[in-house]
Amino acid sequence: MLKKIIKRSEYRQMPWANGGGLTDELCIHYDEETGHMLWRISMADVALDGPFSCFEGYDRVLVLINGRGLTLNFNSGTTVGLHEPYDQVSFAGDIGTHAILLDGPIQDFNVIVRRNALKAEVTILRDACILSLLPNAETLAILALDNDLTIVEPCTESNSV
After folding, report:
1. How many domains are contained in the chain?
2. Do the bridges between strand 70-74 and strand 50-51 make them parallel or antiparallel, or are there none, so unpaired?
3. Low-confidence residues in the chain, pLDDT < 70
4. How many CB atoms lie within 10 A of CB 154?
5. Quick one: which of 20, 96, 123, 139 has the most CB atoms within 10 Å?
6. How far apart are the first and last CA of the chain?
């Protein structure tokens, strides 16, 4: 598996699709044939209530990183609250979504994937642990927020004495 460490200084600051703010784009991948975005991983500081950008044909996973939380109101009539750090929600990127901040600004972590091509899963690891990788996963992104991170790869070579 190809490994690449992306430092905070390498994040690209990009305007939100709806023009309401900025996101720090950690990484993005495009389909080589169509040029369409396949997936994007980003973080954003949200200071005001407002609509989410529409991503037609994409699914999203949103994780609260910092702040006192927010409520997401979807045009489907569903309401979801993210109240504690690391609370998360998965939703269709093309459903109208409006965010209401509960008590001041928040920071979120966002994964967006092309619905007909990929599936995203976000797992929160809080303590030292061993993570088993899916054998057919093409991409694994790891974001260390609170602590240093050590990645140990299993030995694949056979040594005899």
Report:
1. 1
2. unpaired
3. 1-3, 5, 128-161
4. 5
5. 20
6. 28
